[in-house]
Structure formats: structure tokens, C-alpha cells
Amino acid sequence: MANDVVTIDDLIKKVLSYNHDADIDLLKKAYTFSSEAHMSQTRIEGSPYIEHPLAVASILADMKMDTTTIAAGLLHDTVEDTITTVKDIKGLFGNDIAFLVNALTKLSKMEFMTKEEAQAENFRKMLLAMAEDVRVILIKFADRLHNMNTLEHLPDSKRKRIAAETLDIYAPIANRLGIGWLKTEFEDLSFKFLLPELYGEIVKKIAKRKEEQEGYLKEVVGEIEKRLKEENISGKVSSRVKHSYGIYQKMQKQRITFEQIHDVLGIRIITDTKANCYAVMGIIHSLWTPVPGRFKDYIGVPKSKMYQSLHRTVIGPNGERVEFKIRTEEMNRIAEDGIASHWRYKEKGAFNEKDSRYISWLRELIQSQKEFSDAKDFLEEVKGAVVPDVVYVFTPKGDIKELPVGSTPVDLAYSIHTQVGHRCVGAKVDGKIVPLKYQLRNGDTLEIITSPTHGPSRDWLKFVVTQRAKSRIKQWIKTEERKQSIELGTKLIEEDLRRHSLGPSMLKSDKMLDIAKSLGIQSLEDLFVSVGYGKLSPHQVVNKLLPEKPVEEVVPKTVKPPAEQKGISIKGIDDILYHTAKCCFPIPGDNLVGFITRGKGVTIHNRNCHNLERLAVDDARLVDVEWKQEGDTTYPARLLVETVDRPGILANLSALISSVNVNIRHIEASSTPDKKAHIGFILEVKDKKQISTLIQKIASVDGILRVKR
Ligand code: MN
User: How many angstroms separate the alpha carbon of residue 138 from the centre of ligand 1?
Assistant: First the structure.
């Protein structure tokens, strides 16, 4: 990779060399936009910034990428480093390029750890969070490659950090994606900056070896070419030098010196068919003596990656060892370009948008791997990387968050901060509002919408998956229930005080505290909680303030003078937690009673509800309530009708109910052997008056035997 400055004309020429009808206007437009956006910036070495995106695009052109990828390469730093927004890119260049640039921007904000054990994790993150489209990684690679090529301009510490990251993260990823040449480049460049002296030494020795063996290799190459011609086998023969980091690794691993390495130089033969690979090997055998055990058939038994080749070492003309690698054009392309070969520009519009998605690549890969004996291992490896038990999402600032699969915006909110969780009212994914129980997907950018007055709901417990969210919600509910109990208790005592013509000032008086203590309760708050929680009746408390009057210990609610009986007005006390009982369907206007639940506020029942008799053995937990009809609000009410079983009766009744503007929520009907029918309705009514009128009307219908709620 040369450090020569690339111009837009160079780039266009390069693209046209493999893609004759490339969209040159698009490339020019991207170039112009990028150079204007980066106008005021320079690279660290002082050159105009645009040289960098141009170089990146040029690397992508070397990889024979499609114009979309190359244009995205030209634009890859505009959102990250200039005032340009993804929206701008979308408007000017469309969805695909905007997607790529956006993903690259996110990627650049991702901090990699260089610990060995973090590698696999980072690999997965890179694949999953960014690579909905593998072109993102390819552009990232090109970006890193150019940065590595210009690393000498950075201060030493920074240089070493970036080189280490390249060696630990980028090279293995390139390797796992099967891009052999990039892996080699990344390794050699990192080696150069991490261990400059050792690197220099090895490079010098390689050059020397090459010089020494040049004539010798020429001889070998000539010999083979001659024989291939005679046998009428097509083949390109070239000599190759093992890359410096590979040599270093081999020296380390086998504890040998450079001089003991025999395959520093090798010969590569590219032929046309698989059968000819073996034919070429036959020719080599006929020319020189094979070194026993130095044969590897990665065609019959491929390595678990996308690598197929025959490796054969022989004793060459001067008694020197020579290693041959024999493969087809296709095998070579896959070995060198790996995943990138699937994104290459293809003639005749064979490049399909859907093809460009990682998943479809995978499918293709799965197909092509079927014939291989160790395809299973390969697939397990790929699957492991693709079907994870975690999802990676982004905050609007670009922070990456890892959450268990199935997590929701609420889980994310609690993972940010408890208060964010509590105040969470909604979420946006990539700008669109989603429900709180939306299941997060890889790569989502999530914005949590909060409201300072909002609190969590018990319902959230049904869909959150993280332990943190669960425990924080439960904790909040517990605190909230205590608050509710305090308010309810306060209200109940206040009410009783008023009944005895005592002012609310008594509520927080020293006398009240004395009462609390006499009941074994340490604070006023706890006293109110006890009442609100139904452990203590308000009478038990207030009676202690009235020593001179003999009072009934427990006043049955039913005998209280109705005029005085205001009870708790549910309406107007918004904060008090109440709900209507599901057994008796109370509605405004009914004779009602409240039942103080343990910590969940008041349940409103009809006073004649059978359930209530069973529940309210303890009168202290019953409280009077007044419930005013509020606007057009309707409440569910149940109506039971017994009728003679005749055709059309149900239709008649339904029509009648609808005619008085009452909605039917639910109907249940059954007939008895004695020709009677029982029909149950759940209706939506405003108040008692409305349902009473309806009952009268129904009762007057022919054949109706009984109507009751
Ligand atoms: Mn860059």
C-alpha cells in the first residue's frame, strides 16, 4: 500500500478499470461534498484532510468494491468530524450510503479493549452491532489500513496503542472474515510499530534471502512453466515471500532462528480446475523429491475457514527446500479476499442489493460449505458469532450497551440510571416512537423519553428481563405503596376528626404522637401508614382524643347518619390508589364501601357484595366512599337476565340495550332443560340511574322472567 497521494482522477481511473459503467458522477459528487466538509481540517502531518478519505476509497477500489461502498468511503468521516449530519448524507446520497456512513460513525465511537479475552467479544460486537451490512467493516478496514500506513506521524505512545489494537482486534477479524491479504498487512504494519528493531532485522534478512535465492527460484519457476506447457495445463507461477510477522510468529512458536526457516520463500501456482491442482502436484513430484510429511491437502480437507489449497514441500535443484502452494483462481480469490469477494462489483448488474446483506452472505456460505467434511465445525463457529444471547444497542451519544436478548427500552433505561428508568415514559428507535415493551434489536439507536412526574408501573414487571430493572421497579412500588398508605391513613384520620368536630391541626399534634406511642408506634408517619394499610382503624386513633365521651368502639358503617356520611370522595383525591372490585361491578350511585387493601389502596365494592362479607371480617378496613360520576366516563356493570327461551330474544335485548346508548362489552348465554335461558351482559354504563332505567325497560319485554345486577 503506497503512501502516494491519490487524486479523484486516479480513483476514477481505478474504478473504471474493473467497472466500465461505474457511476462516476456519484463518486465526483461524494468527493466534492467530502472535500468541502473537511475543508478546514488537516491530517496530523499537515496535509489536507481529504487525502485520507481519498486513500480509503482507493483501497476499496483495489478491493474492487461497488460504487456505493467507495462513495461511502469518501464520506466516512464527514459525520464524525464535521458538522454534516446523517440526514444531510441521506438527502444527498440516499439510504444505502447514509446507512454505511452512520454505521461507521457509530463504530468510530466504540472503544476496543485490547485484552486477549475480549477479542472474541469485540469480534461479535463488530459483526453484530455494525455489520448488518459487511461493507461497513470493509470500509472500516480500509480506514484502519490507511491510518496504519500513516502511523509514523503520530506520537510514539499513540502509535503503539493503535498498532496493538490493530494486531489484537483488526487482524483476527480480517482473518476470520477470510481476507488473507488484509490480515497480513495489519500484522506486518503492527509488527513494524510495536517491535521496530526486530521488524527491521527480519525485513533485512528476508531481502538477503531473496537476493540469494533469486536465480535459483527463477530456475524452478522456468522448469515448471515449461512442463505445464507440455502437459497443456494452464497455470500462473509466481514466487512469494512469507510475511514478516508470520516469520516472527514461527520463530517464536518453534523456538528457531530465521536461518532455520525454510519456507521464507515459496512458489504459488494458480490453475483452473480442482483436478489440475492435483495434476500440477504430480508434475512437481516428477521433477523433485518430496520432503516426507510436508504435504497438506486443504482441498480435500479444507481448513475450517474459507481456505483451500495444496501445500507441498520438495527438495529443489540445489538441495534447498521449496514450498509450493497450488490452488485454483477461485480458491485464491476466496483465500485473499474472503468475505470481501462477495461485495465485489460484478459485471452485468449481478450485484444485488439483497446480496449485500450479511445474512444472505451467511446463507450463501452455509450452502457452499455443505460439501465440506468439517462444515459442521465451521457453521458452529459462524452460528456462535451470529446468534448471540445478547443485543447491542446505542445511546444517542454513541455509547454501546450490551443487554440480554428480549430486553426492552425499560431495561435499557434502568441500565443507564435508576432515575432514567423510573421517569421513562417512552422510547424512540432510530427516531421512531416504539412501545415500552418493544424488544431491542442489534444496532438500534435508542433514545429514552422521560417525564419528571412519571413513575414505573407494576405492568412493567411483565416484560422487563434484566434483574436490575426488576428490582428497581419493585423497590419503587414498595416505596410508592408506603406513600399511598400514608396519604390514605392521613385522609381517613382527618375524616374521622371532622366527624367529631375536630380540626385538621390535631393531625400532626403532640397529642397524636402520644397516641401513636401508646399504640406502640414510633412516628406519626408510621401511625398513618398503619391506618392507611388497614392495620388500625381511624376510630381507634381518634377515640383516644375524646376521653370524656363514651364512644362506641366500632361503629357499623351502615348505621351512620346518611346526611353526615360523606365518606372518602374518590374523585378529587387523585393520588389515592383505588380500583373497583371485579366481583360486584360497582358504579357511581350505588351504595358503596371501600375496602382498605394491604398496601394497594382502596378497593371499591357494592355494599351488598357477597365477597365483601367474606373479606371484611375486620371492620377497621372498611371505609365509606362517595363516588361522583365524572363526565361521560362509563364503568362496567353486570346484568343477569332470566327469560323464556324463544328465538330472537337475544337480538331483541341487544337492540334494546343499544337503543338507550349503552355499549355491550360481553354477552354470555345458556339455556336450561325447562326451556329457559340465562343471559349475562357486561355493559358500559355511566351510573346507577342509567342501569336502573334499563332494568325497568328490559323487565317489561315479553317473556322476561327476571332481571338483576
Ligand atoms: Mn477515517
Answer: 12
